[in-house]
Amino acid sequence: MTQSHTKISQYPPGDFAIWIFIYAELLVFGIFFLSYAFARSQNVELFNESQLNLNRISGAINTLILITSSYFVVRAVAAIRENKSLLCARWLLAAIVLAGAFIGIKLFEFISIYSEGISLSTNTFYMFYLSMTFFHFMHVIMGMVILIAVMLKAKQGGYSNEDHTGVETGASYWHMVDLVWIILFPLVYVMR
Amino acid sequence: MNKTTTTKSNLRPCTWVWLTLMVLTLAVLTVGQMGLGGVTIVALLLVSTLVKTHIVADYFMGLKQGRLLWRMIIIVYLWIIVSMIGLAYWLGIS
Amino acid sequence: MQYQSQAVAKPYFIAAIGLFVGQIVFGAILGLQYVMGDFLFPEIPFNVARMVHTNLLIVWLLFGFMGAAYYMVPEETETELYSPKLALILFWVFLAAGVLTIIGYLAVPYATLAQITGNDLLPTMGREFLEQPTITKIGIVIVALGMLFNISMTVLKGRKTAIIMVLLLGLWGLAIFFLFSFYNPENLVLDKIFWWWVVHLWVEGVWELILGSILAFVLIKMTGVDREIIEKWLYVIIAMALISGIIGTGHHYFWIGTPEYWQWWGSIFSAIEPIPFFMMVIFAFNMVNKRKRDHPNKAAMLWAMGTPVMAFLGAGVWGFMHTLAPVNYYTHGTQITAAHGHMAFYGAYVMIVLAIISYAMPLLRGRAAGNSKKAQIVEMWSFWLMTVSMVFITLFLTGAGILQVWLQRINENPMGFMEVQDKIAIFYWMREVAGVIFLIGLIVYVTSFFIGGDEEEASS
Known about the structure:
The complex is a heterotrimer of chains A (about 190), B (about 90) and C (about 450).
Chain A (H helix, E strand, L loop, with lengths): L1 H6 L8 H26 L2 H8 L4 H26 L3 H31 L8 H32 L9 H26 L2
Helix pairs in contact in A: 2-6, 2-7, 4-5, 4-7, 5-6, 6-7
Chain B lengths: L3 H30 L5 H22 L7 H26 L1
Helix pairs in contact in B: 1-2, 2-3
Chain C lengths: L8 H27 L10 H32 L6 H24 L2 H7 L17 H24 L4 H17 L9 H36 L3 H22 L12 H11 L2 H16 L8 H24 L3 H7 L3 H30 L8 H38 L6 H7 L1 H24 L12
Helix pairs in contact in C: 1-2, 1-16, 2-3, 2-5, 2-13, 3-5, 5-6, 6-7, 7-8, 7-10, 7-13, 8-9, 8-10, 10-11, 11-13, 11-14, 13-14, 14-15, 14-16
């Protein structure tokens, strides 16, 4: 590990592998976004009409939640850099609670859409809306799992200001989940 | 490696980033609630998306420190995605 | 060879190469039948030759994977195999089942074979690649479960490395997904959906785990790069392979009666299927650049380097070429698919098995590190003969496919299937020539095992 220690300033925060993974994930979401945009250009009216049916308020609340959760993770990383393990764990817990709130609101959205009898086969707009938000939903769950693992280790004092790559790795992944939603929300819920 | 000296100065811009993101999101919601659309609005929304994702990458993800290559990958990605979305919307109008 | 029980890998590897020769002989027959339809008729009709060609491929690759597992597991877990005897018994069971099945294909008409083997009791036959009689399928399951038991017990008592866990996951997945070959619903759409659970989730899912772990093992051994670095790469690669590969199954669901959203899901997720292969290329070349020693077995190194490159081309590039629904609308089931299939199977799975054989066989035969220089040069010749001729097979089939798509599907006055086959015969002839060169390359490969001489000294 001595090698990676001297090189740490050259890489972004976190493990080298997570960045490869983040870039690959961004590529997948990117393909989704562009497919949506170009599919829409073939069928503007349908997309505009269906878009009105979405719950923009809950989408916006979820955006605020994810942004804030991301900010809490920033605080957690700052805390561990000052060697405050418990504080780090507490910020992470706050971020995880918000992630749980996101999941709850999103489920509510899915259920209300489902109860309207809308499915993947209803039309192309809903196909994209459901696929993209569900794919992102799975990433939120994955991110939560990572954050919980990091929090538990932080609680036991598993990180220090010297060695906290694990915290940064989890943080970077969580910011990616946030970043993707920041594009997804205006694109699918608002832009017309 | 001692990072404590830089922590405080790193945190303040992040707080500003958080507040900016919140405000911009509320602005996006307002646009949505008013049912606005069209070239100008789409352009504004895209610019705000670009700004938001930029500052998340630079400050939250901390890409501003470290080697330029890693930052450039995300920046180029964001510009391509946002401009292609813009192109697709423009195609939808004409 | 550090552990006695690794020796059980040897018969598996030998059987794999033997069946490989059979596969290529039938490939050459088959290639000729494309242009001379009655060649060897009625002894070996086209459909039988095709069945033998594809089934032998699968069986010998399985022999290769099993051999690789029996070789790798003791060394990685740092303990002797749980039961070398069980491994040998399973070898003979599998070989007998495989050979008897092939003889069955050749000796009696397929319908008779189905009748003899009691297909009525549990009908599973008659589907592409899963043509094996039901009893053979049961045999495969028994052999696979026996091997998994043997290997899992070994892993449980020994060191658990990431490479072995990935290999184990891949092999368990292989066995579990094969169980869907016993599910044969009346509904044709459902039948196809679950048929792909075997076929696709094998080659674009769990087999990639096996490929990744074998490649990682060979690279650790040959380059001496830290395990930690190699394992990190392995994790990222398999994560991407599974994310893209599992939902990427959708690219087979385009025109078979499934809902339309599969066209989007299949297109989007399979568009990223080349990424794990691309990562493998970067991974392999990176590790070689960081190498801490120059391994004397140059031939094995060549196979290990060739694998990711050819896999990326065959599976990644040639796969992507026709994976998007709007493209696949025209190319579905044409020679484009055949081109992709040939290079993908060769690049990904044939080459990785040959890589582990090339690495392990000299050690299994009691040599310190590698074969004599003379033997290695011959083996490297076979590498280039087979690889280059496979590139040409792929290119000629691609040419045939493009012309076929044009004449048969895009053209304003589309021609009938057989009419088009006549028009593209020239490509089939050229493919057959390339195929014969491949066979020559394979003969050269086999010859390399019988060349003696002084062993290369290990240099570090």
